[in-house]
Amino acid sequence: MKNYLDVIKKSPLFHNIEDFNVIPMLGCIAGYKKSYEKGQIIFSEGDLINEIGIVLKGKVELSKYGYNGNKSIIVTLEAPQMFGESYACSEIKKIPVDIISIEDSEILFVNVERILKTCSNACSFHNKMISNLLTAVANKNIVLNKKIEITSKRTTREKLLTYLFLKAKEEGKKQFTIEYDRQSLADYLEVDRSGLSVEISKLCKEGIIDNQKNHFILKRNIYI
Amino acid sequence: MKNYLDVIKKSPLFHNIEDFNVIPMLGCIAGYKKSYEKGQIIFSEGDLINEIGIVLKGKVELSKYGYNGNKSIIVTLEAPQMFGESYACSEIKKIPVDIISIEDSEILFVNVERILKTCSNACSFHNKMISNLLTAVANKNIVLNKKIEITSKRTTREKLLTYLFLKAKEEGKKQFTIEYDRQSLADYLEVDRSGLSVEISKLCKEGIIDNQKNHFILKRNIYI
DNA sequence: CTCCTTTTGTTGAAAATTCAACATACATTG
DNA sequence: CAATGTATGTTGAATTTTCAACAAAAGGAG
User: Fold this and answer.
1) CB-based contact (8 Å) between A161 and chain B?
2) In what order do the strands lie in the sheet with B98-101?
3) Over the stretch B41-50, which tens digit does the pLDDT of each residue have?
4) Which partner for B141 in A86, B167, B173, B179 could form a disulfide, CB atoms 3.0-4.6 Å apart?
């Protein structure tokens, strides 16, 4: 079985851990690999998890059933992304989603308690991994906070302007290119695509923004 | 100056740390107290923070200005709640909010790097605090995820049903009391209060739920 | 360049939300 | 228990979103 060291090194959990420390580290935290066939269930909704999964090969899908029994796909992950960290680290270890391998996949599992318990040999990279884990969870936190700030606005126009305003602030300029096409932006803002197009046109006509495809310019009435 | 040990002990960061360890712990992580008068600014938007603030006395307000220059209050915190942890722990240390003392307050600051760097005397409670911090950030993550799952639905009815469905699942029963009054629930769901009342009435008439004030019963068509 | 596909913009009708105003129920207190 | 204030329910009008269908533009392949 391939050891996937190259992939593991790219995972946020192993960020800034020197190559030659990765193998000892894995031993130290008792990480283990597991293979899943296409369609195989990795975790079912309601499972209690103490382990973080890192996708080494293949693809996994997080999905969930709503009150009406409809399944919705939340996200698809590939190497070297990880899943389960929020739940494994929280007090509520019950995961609220199904996690399914949608391709033949290899997953690396690492136990959170083993990460947190500094090992007997007090390895320096152990502390680095704890800090990486905390950073990863905190980063996600910020992403979610931002999304809530934007989508909690009531109209398409307000959502869009809030999004553009925050983007401009991040970039530090009133002119920037976004990473979404129209449909993805509509999905992110939780609005209708055609309604979004209408709103962008309006803002352009009103002279508040300029827009060419993914490139936006904030012209006035926006306080950065 | 009061030492506020009783408050500190209640903070999530000091959860399960024995009383007699709190003082040594504070020394170990170089925690320090600071007083703020009513109206005084604790952090301004854009400040880089490396410290978590724990409210020991008084009240602090997190607020922010939108694209239109309007100020909106995000949350008010009192003892023993903490703030800044997501930013102090993340890669983006710039806080996006103003944090203001709205009463005469006392704040305990602890440096995240000092928490993460296991101290020379390798105190056992140090590890506990790291784990507490991680748990706190991960818990918030779950709260935010849930809120997004609910508010990303497009109609008041879907938001409400998703909320009730998740609540029922958490409680493990189809009958439960919620912690919100109508206005707070509307705020949480990001919908209009009167529209929410209309929807609750409809669902009752349709025989899908029963409701008396804060008490809800899911009757059918809800898959838990 | 042309054909074909994908993305984006536009339109109008239907559905849903918001808003303001008022009615009713509930709770508190003097 | 009357009076007052707060919370909740109801209504209709105005605004906004969604939805479906189509038009226009952009991009790629041959």
Assistant:
1) yes
2) B41-43, B98-101, B59-65, B71-78
3) 999 999 999 9
4) A86
